[in-house]
Amino acid sequence: MKRDQRQYMREWYRRKRLDPAWVEKERIRGRNKMRYRRANDPAFAAQERVGKSQRMKNWRAANLERIQQKDRERSVQQNAARNTRRAANPEKIRAIDRQRYQDNPEPMLTRNRARRARLANALCTLTVEQWEAILELADRQCIYCGASVDITMDHLIPLARGGSHTADNVAPACRSCNSSKGIKTVVEFMEEAS
Protein backbone atom coordinates (compact mmCIF):
# COMPACT_ATOMS: atom_id res chain seq x y z
CA MET A 1 0.00 0.00 0.00
CA LYS A 2 2.82 2.39 0.79
CA ARG A 3 4.29 1.67 -2.60
CA ASP A 4 0.99 2.54 -4.28
CA GLN A 5 0.80 5.75 -2.27
CA ARG A 6 4.35 6.72 -3.32
CA GLN A 7 3.52 5.95 -6.93
CA TYR A 8 0.36 8.06 -6.65
CA MET A 9 2.32 10.98 -5.15
CA ARG A 10 4.92 10.79 -7.92
CA GLU A 11 2.21 10.89 -10.57
CA TRP A 12 0.43 13.74 -8.78
CA TYR A 13 3.63 15.76 -8.53
CA ARG A 14 4.51 15.06 -12.17
CA ARG A 15 1.08 16.31 -13.28
CA LYS A 16 1.30 19.37 -11.05
CA ARG A 17 4.73 20.33 -12.43
CA LEU A 18 3.13 20.73 -15.84
CA ASP A 19 0.80 23.42 -14.46
CA PRO A 20 2.64 26.81 -14.64
CA ALA A 21 0.35 28.44 -12.07
CA TRP A 22 1.14 25.73 -9.51
CA VAL A 23 4.88 25.95 -10.23
CA GLU A 24 4.83 29.74 -9.72
CA LYS A 25 2.84 29.36 -6.49
CA GLU A 26 5.35 26.81 -5.16
CA ARG A 27 8.28 29.02 -6.12
CA ILE A 28 6.76 31.98 -4.26
CA ARG A 29 5.95 29.78 -1.26
CA GLY A 30 9.55 28.52 -1.10
CA ARG A 31 10.94 32.04 -1.48
CA ASN A 32 8.67 33.35 1.30
CA LYS A 33 9.69 30.47 3.53
CA MET A 34 13.38 31.37 3.07
CA ARG A 35 12.69 35.06 3.64
CA TYR A 36 10.87 34.25 6.88
CA ARG A 37 13.74 32.06 8.06
CA ARG A 38 16.38 34.70 7.18
CA ALA A 39 14.39 37.41 8.98
CA ASN A 40 13.66 35.39 12.14
CA ASP A 41 16.78 33.25 12.51
CA PRO A 42 19.96 35.43 12.58
CA ALA A 43 22.22 32.40 12.95
CA PHE A 44 20.77 30.87 9.77
CA ALA A 45 21.13 34.16 7.88
CA ALA A 46 24.78 34.57 8.93
CA GLN A 47 25.57 30.94 8.13
CA GLU A 48 23.87 31.26 4.76
CA ARG A 49 25.88 34.41 3.88
CA VAL A 50 29.20 32.85 4.87
CA GLY A 51 28.29 29.55 3.31
CA LYS A 52 27.25 31.14 0.01
CA SER A 53 30.39 33.27 -0.10
CA GLN A 54 32.60 30.26 0.58
CA ARG A 55 30.72 28.11 -1.93
CA MET A 56 31.21 30.81 -4.59
CA LYS A 57 34.94 31.06 -3.81
CA ASN A 58 35.31 27.29 -3.98
CA TRP A 59 33.35 27.11 -7.24
CA ARG A 60 35.42 29.93 -8.81
CA ALA A 61 38.66 28.24 -7.78
CA ALA A 62 37.50 24.90 -9.19
CA ASN A 63 36.20 26.43 -12.45
CA LEU A 64 38.77 29.17 -13.07
CA GLU A 65 39.72 27.92 -16.53
CA ARG A 66 36.06 27.69 -17.52
CA ILE A 67 35.40 31.26 -16.28
CA GLN A 68 38.42 32.60 -18.15
CA GLN A 69 37.32 30.80 -21.33
CA LYS A 70 33.84 32.33 -21.03
CA ASP A 71 35.39 35.78 -20.50
CA ARG A 72 37.55 35.33 -23.62
CA GLU A 73 34.55 34.23 -25.67
CA ARG A 74 32.50 37.19 -24.42
CA SER A 75 35.35 39.56 -25.24
CA VAL A 76 35.62 38.16 -28.78
CA GLN A 77 31.86 38.55 -29.27
CA GLN A 78 31.88 42.12 -27.97
CA ASN A 79 34.84 43.05 -30.16
CA ALA A 80 33.16 41.50 -33.21
CA ALA A 81 29.94 43.40 -32.51
CA ARG A 82 31.85 46.66 -32.01
CA ASN A 83 33.83 46.12 -35.23
CA THR A 84 30.60 45.38 -37.13
CA ARG A 85 29.05 48.62 -35.87
CA ARG A 86 32.21 50.53 -36.78
CA ALA A 87 32.29 49.01 -40.26
CA ALA A 88 28.61 49.77 -40.83
CA ASN A 89 28.85 53.42 -39.69
CA PRO A 90 32.44 54.60 -40.14
CA GLU A 91 31.62 58.29 -40.55
CA LYS A 92 29.29 58.36 -37.55
CA ILE A 93 31.81 56.55 -35.32
CA ARG A 94 34.64 58.84 -36.51
CA ALA A 95 32.51 61.90 -35.68
CA ILE A 96 31.70 60.52 -32.20
CA ASP A 97 35.39 59.77 -31.54
CA ARG A 98 36.43 63.22 -32.77
CA GLN A 99 33.85 64.91 -30.55
CA ARG A 100 34.88 62.83 -27.54
CA TYR A 101 38.51 63.83 -28.11
CA GLN A 102 37.63 67.52 -28.49
CA ASP A 103 35.54 67.50 -25.32
CA ASN A 104 38.25 65.85 -23.20
CA PRO A 105 41.59 65.18 -24.95
CA GLU A 106 43.68 64.35 -21.88
CA PRO A 107 42.63 60.68 -21.38
CA MET A 108 43.39 59.81 -25.01
CA LEU A 109 46.69 61.71 -24.95
CA THR A 110 47.70 59.97 -21.72
CA ARG A 111 46.78 56.57 -23.17
CA ASN A 112 48.78 57.26 -26.35
CA ARG A 113 51.82 58.48 -24.41
CA ALA A 114 51.74 55.41 -22.18
CA ARG A 115 51.45 53.18 -25.25
CA ARG A 116 54.49 54.85 -26.84
CA ALA A 117 56.44 54.31 -23.62
CA ARG A 118 55.43 50.63 -23.46
CA LEU A 119 56.47 50.11 -27.09
CA ALA A 120 59.87 51.61 -26.25
CA ASN A 121 60.09 49.24 -23.23
CA ALA A 122 60.35 52.27 -20.96
CA LEU A 123 59.29 52.54 -17.36
CA CYS A 124 55.79 54.04 -17.41
CA THR A 125 54.43 55.41 -14.11
CA LEU A 126 53.34 58.96 -14.98
CA THR A 127 49.73 59.75 -14.02
CA VAL A 128 47.47 62.56 -15.18
CA GLU A 129 47.60 64.10 -11.69
CA GLN A 130 51.41 64.15 -11.74
CA TRP A 131 51.45 65.77 -15.17
CA GLU A 132 48.97 68.42 -14.02
CA ALA A 133 51.18 69.14 -10.98
CA ILE A 134 54.23 69.52 -13.25
CA LEU A 135 52.29 71.93 -15.49
CA GLU A 136 51.23 74.00 -12.47
CA LEU A 137 54.79 74.05 -11.14
CA ALA A 138 56.03 75.45 -14.48
CA ASP A 139 53.09 77.93 -14.72
CA ARG A 140 51.98 76.12 -17.89
CA GLN A 141 54.91 77.60 -19.80
CA CYS A 142 57.58 76.07 -22.02
CA ILE A 143 60.75 75.42 -20.00
CA TYR A 144 62.91 76.32 -23.03
CA CYS A 145 61.38 79.56 -24.40
CA GLY A 146 58.70 80.56 -21.88
CA ALA A 147 55.80 80.36 -24.37
CA SER A 148 52.40 79.52 -22.88
CA VAL A 149 50.55 78.35 -26.01
CA ASP A 150 50.37 74.84 -27.46
CA ILE A 151 52.15 73.19 -24.50
CA THR A 152 53.15 69.53 -24.97
CA MET A 153 54.88 66.91 -22.86
CA ASP A 154 58.61 66.69 -23.46
CA HIS A 155 60.76 63.78 -22.28
CA LEU A 156 64.02 65.23 -20.96
CA ILE A 157 65.79 61.99 -21.86
CA PRO A 158 63.85 60.85 -24.95
CA LEU A 159 62.09 57.50 -24.95
CA ALA A 160 64.05 56.58 -28.07
CA ARG A 161 67.28 56.97 -26.08
CA GLY A 162 66.22 54.93 -23.06
CA GLY A 163 64.32 57.59 -21.10
CA SER A 164 61.33 56.73 -18.93
CA HIS A 165 57.75 57.97 -18.91
CA THR A 166 57.90 59.10 -15.28
CA ALA A 167 57.34 62.37 -13.44
CA ASP A 168 61.07 63.04 -13.09
CA ASN A 169 61.68 62.74 -16.86
CA VAL A 170 58.93 64.96 -18.32
CA ALA A 171 58.58 68.70 -18.59
CA PRO A 172 56.26 71.12 -20.39
CA ALA A 173 57.51 72.42 -23.73
CA CYS A 174 55.82 74.29 -26.57
CA ARG A 175 55.24 72.28 -29.71
CA SER A 176 57.93 74.21 -31.59
CA CYS A 177 60.67 73.58 -29.00
CA ASN A 178 59.62 69.97 -28.53
CA SER A 179 59.78 69.34 -32.29
CA SER A 180 63.15 71.10 -32.56
CA LYS A 181 64.55 69.09 -29.66
CA GLY A 182 63.51 65.80 -31.28
CA ILE A 183 65.52 62.94 -29.77
CA LYS A 184 68.25 65.12 -28.30
CA THR A 185 68.81 65.34 -24.57
CA VAL A 186 68.29 68.68 -22.81
CA VAL A 187 72.07 69.33 -22.71
CA GLU A 188 72.48 68.63 -26.44
CA PHE A 189 69.49 70.81 -27.30
CA MET A 190 70.70 73.74 -25.17
CA GLU A 191 74.22 73.51 -26.64
CA GLU A 192 72.78 73.54 -30.16
CA ALA A 193 70.47 76.47 -29.34
CA SER A 194 73.32 78.69 -28.03
Count of β-strands: 2
What percent of residues are in strands? Answer: 5-15%
Oligomer status: single chain
Overall average pLDDT: 86
Number of helices: 9
What low-confidence regions span 5 or more consecutive residues with pLDDT below 50? none
**Strand order, largest beta sheet:** 1-2
Supply the number of structural domains.
3
Q: Which term fits the overall shape?
A: elongated
Topology as a string of helices (H) and strands (E): HHHHHHHEEHH
Q: What is the CATH architecture assignment of the largest domain?
A: Orthogonal Bundle
DSSP helix fraction: over 70%
Quick one: CATH class of the largest domain?
Mainly Alpha
Q: What's a concise summary of this model?
A:
This protein has 194 residues and is mainly alpha-helical. The protein has helices spanning 2-17, 20-40, 42-62, 64-88, 90-103, 106-119, 128-137, 175-181, 186-193; strands at residues 151-155, 170-174. The chain folds into three domains: 2-62, no CATH class; 65-99; 107-193, DNA Binding (I), subunit A (Orthogonal Bundle), CATH 1.10.30.
